Inverse folding.
């Protein structure tokens, strides 16, 4: 089992769309971080069961087996995962869903389609802003 | 040469007269400005991210379109909705606007239980993908030629 380290540069990304996953991966790597990628929600859940050594997590809202909201809710029930700030990506336009996601513990929300600039700004905020980590903890 | 090829393909893609169900041929197949904006994410000494993205999209989109066709045949609304939703997200993000719009319509139709119009719209999406593939393939060629010319 991995242990949590303050200096970790690992970021968990879960998205069943390979194109979006590649874009997020590129943005995260540009920030000097290492990506741990999951192809769907269930794979992300399995990773999180034994590994909490992540600086941040990025999930797609709608994934097979387990969606992003389910994973964030799970993370907020586990003490070892609570401190990990999570960002949700979605093309949903439902404001209630957005509110539910933030209530569940997501700290950032990125709407698809997104631009390269929007992606970089949001990933930068997720990875570099200490107040987001504090809020999530 | 490849610049000319792209112009020809884009012109054909936007020329009026073609009749494709659910498709507005006045809308460009791929908004290249949106697609090329992702060059910002390119890292030095790494493989061309844009080529990687395009190849991944051209590999993945037919799988999703096949899933749409298959789930329509079996009236599997959840799978249909998910495939339409997924393809809408990647297409819209890469600037494949018309295809993303059709996916959005298909997703809405799935909410209503897949009305007969969905079949015509899906046919339109399949034909639109051919337009998109032409433009994106030309862009891959252009980038490879530019890369080799620069080496």
């Amino acid at each position: 089992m991995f242990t949590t380290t303050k200096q970790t540069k690992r970021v968990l990304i879960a998205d069943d769309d390979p194109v979006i996953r590649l874009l997020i991966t590129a943005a995260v790597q540009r920030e000097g971080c290492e990506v741990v990628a999951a192809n769907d929600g269930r794979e992300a859940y399995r990773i999180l069961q034994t590994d909490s050594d992540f600086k941040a997590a990025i999930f797609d809202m709608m994934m097979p087996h387990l969606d992003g909201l389910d994973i964030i809710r799970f993370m907020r029930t586990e003490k070892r995962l609570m401190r990990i700030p999570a960002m949700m990506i979605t093309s949903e336009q439902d404001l209630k869903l957005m509110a539910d996601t933030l209530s569940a513990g997501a700290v950032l929300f990125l709407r698809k389609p997104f631009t390269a600039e929007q992606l970089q700004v949001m990933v930068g905020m997720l990875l570099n802003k200490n107040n987001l980590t504090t809020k999530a903890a | 040469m490849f610049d000319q090829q792209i112009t020809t393909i884009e012109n054909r893609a936007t020329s009026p007269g073609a009749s494709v169900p659910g498709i507005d041929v006045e809308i460009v197949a791929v908004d290249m400005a949106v697609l090329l904006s992702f060059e910002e994410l390119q890292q030095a000494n790494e493989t061309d991210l844009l080529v990687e993205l395009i190849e991944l999209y051209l590999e993945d989109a037919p799988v999703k379109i096949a899933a749409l066709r298959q789930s329509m045949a079996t009236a599997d609304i959840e799978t249909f909705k998910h495939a339409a939703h997924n393809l809408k997200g990647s297409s819209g993000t890469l600037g494949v606007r018309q295809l993303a719009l059709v996916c959005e319509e298909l997703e809405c139709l799935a909410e209503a239980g897949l009305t007969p119009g969905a079949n015509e719209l899906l046919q339109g999406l399949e034909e639109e993908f051919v337009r998109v593939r032409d433009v994106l393939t030309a862009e891959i060629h252009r980038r490879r030629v530019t890369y080799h010319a620069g080496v």
In short: The CA atoms of residues 68 and 80 of chain B lie 5 Å apart.
